[in-house]
Structures are given as structure tokens and as C-alpha cells.
Amino acid sequence: MNCQIDYLHDKIIMSTSVETKMEKMDSSFTSTFIGLSGFPTEVGVSTSSSPVDISNNLWSLKIYPGGFDDESKEYLSCFLHSDVSRPIRASFKISVMNQKGWKNQHFMSNVKEFNKSTSMWGEAKFILRNDLRNATNGICVEDKLVIKVEMTVYGSIEYKTKRSGSIALSPSKNKSTLSQDLASILFTESSADVTIITGDDRIPAHKFMLCLRSEVFKAMLCMGMSETRSNEIVISDFDESIVRELLKYIYTDECSPKSLEENCELIFAAACKYQIQGLETLCEVYMSSTINVSNVVKIAYFADLYGKKELKNCALQFIAMNAKAVIQTEGFFDSLGFVLCQEVLKVIAGVGADKHDT
Predict the structure, then answer these.
(1) Which end of the chain is more exposed for a tag (fewer CB within 10 A), N or C?
(2) Pairwise CA distance, residues 41 & 37, whole Å
(3) What is the pLDDT of residue 125?
């Protein structure tokens, strides 16, 4: 007598991604500056449009007809300004409306934080003053300049590791998922075949997981190195909490918000050293979204050390816009290497990059 049970389990296809979620609100307003030729043209002197209330904050356009600084004195500078009561993030597009129906000139920004120390973002070299004087191009007609702002205001950021795909069906409805099974063997000794040593702590782990998730661990354990023979990996440059957070991400694709808040730079350094790309990305997103006066130097240092150009540029832009406050932080120059220190000083001075170019 033959008995057969059919299982529906051809394949399991899983994908994992780091998902950031933010509440957002789209809005726009238009400001008209009449009698532009009569506005002050001294460098650094501004004129503001009437404020509008968007997301419980007052927003306005601030223009500098004579330029924001000496580098932009041949231009009209334009910035989006907010009288913020609390830090708020927004992306925006500033467009000069062509009054003859020709192509509009515009400037676009990625997401920026507006706060009490950095209340405006925009472009110092927005429009050449010679173009403003030429009424035939439609930019400034009858001494009138029309500028439209389209913006998206963002709420708080939520981080979530998203796992998706098709999972095999089984006769048991209560069967655990693959992610749950992997999480269940984290830090367990029963099936471990390798030990990670950090300080006095010995952490059990599994070769297949380390090799699957990290090319560095794979080289240690499968390429005839000392770790291959001893089944032990010594990590001396990160303490136990950082190593455990690294392993947690390897097994579960998750990193606790509290750990990111307290030790993001060190977790990022560990992720870069052992080439855990998903964790690298998660840390980069977190650092760029929480950059402030007290941590920007540390972020710039780690971004430069591990070759993360986008994160480094984000930090340098923040330093340029908040130079006075950042330089006054304790140990500012001691925290930077010589080459990076030169880059920071050049950005502050506006050499090689427009410090207001976003």
C-alpha cells in the first residue's frame, strides 16, 4: 500500500530591503516682488515675501538682490526661509515664473532640515543680475519678479526592515517562518560552530550565516586563514554591544532604534569593516537624517574614512551652513585628520564649492 502526501513547496524567494517611511504634505505658494529695481543692492541685504502658514510653520522667500555674499554679488540670491518652532524637514523647488510664457528657471533641493540655527536653504547664485535687467527674456517684466515655491514637508522618519517574497506552503498552519527560525538560533550554543571573541565575551555563531552575509567573514572562515582552523574570530576594535548588534542584523535584518541612536557611528564602522551592505545603508540613512552640530564632525570623519561620498558631502554642507556653531564645539579640529580638516576649511571659506548649493 502506497501512501503519498503532496507538499506545495517548489521554492522560497525572499528579498530584504531597508524601508524608510515619512509622513509628508505637499504644498506651494507664489510670491511677487514688485519694484525690484528699487530694492537695496548691497551685498548681504535681504527682502522677504509675506509669510504663509504651512504645516504649522511660517514660510517665506528671502531674496538678496545684491547677492548673499561677495562670491554671489553678480547674482540675485534666493532662499526658502522658515520661522521654525521645532526642527522640520522639507524638500522644495523654487521656480522663476517666466512672464512671457517661456521656460521657467528653477532650483531644486533634496530634503533639508530647517531649525533655529539653520532656518533657510536655497541658492546664492540664483539669477544673474544682468538677466534681471533684460526685460525681453521674461524673467523680470515691468520691474516685477514672480517666484513660485513647490515643497514637501516631512514628518518623523520611521525605519523598518522589509522582507518580501513568496514562501512555500506547508500542511501545518503554525509552521514558523524562515526569519523566525534564523532569529531563534541567534546567540545559541547548541548548533553553533564558530565563536566570536570580543574582550572577555565569547559569542556563539554559525559559519553559514557569517559566510552568507559577509565576504570578510567568508574569507576568514573558508580561505585557509587562522580562523578557518581555530573556528574562532577575534574582534578587538569593537566592544561586545557593537558586535552583538552586528550579529543581530546578520541574522534578522534588524537593528534596534535605541542602538542606532546611541552607537550609530560605531555600528556603521563595523558594518563597513565586515561589508554588511544593508546595515551600512541603514546607518547612512539614519546619520544623514539626524545630523546636527554635536555629531556632524564625527559623521564627516567616518564618511571620509570609509569612502561614503554622499554622506560626507551632506556633512560638509551642514558644516558650511553652521560653521560658527560647529567650529566652537569641543575638540573640533582634534577630531579631523589633516586632509579632511583642509576640506572642511575650504568648504567653510567657499573654496571649490558653493556653500549654499544643495
Answers:
(1) N
(2) 9
(3) 93
Distance CA 297, CA 294 (A): 7
Q: Is 224 left (phi over 0), alpha (psi -120 to 50) or beta?
A: left
Domain ranges of the chain: 22-156
Q: Which residue has the cell 531563534?
A: 184
Is residue 2 predicted with pLDDT exceeding 70? no
CA 144 to chain centre: 38
- Residues 317-346, buried b or exposed e (16+ Cβ, 10 A)? bbbbbbbeebeeeeeeeeebeeebeebbee
Q: CA dihedral defined by 260, 266, 270, 271, rounded to 10 degrees?
A: 40
22-156: CATH number: 2.60.210.10
Q: pLDDT digit string (tens) for 210-269?
A: 999 999 999 999 888 888 889 999 999 999 999 999 999 998 888 888 898 899 999 999
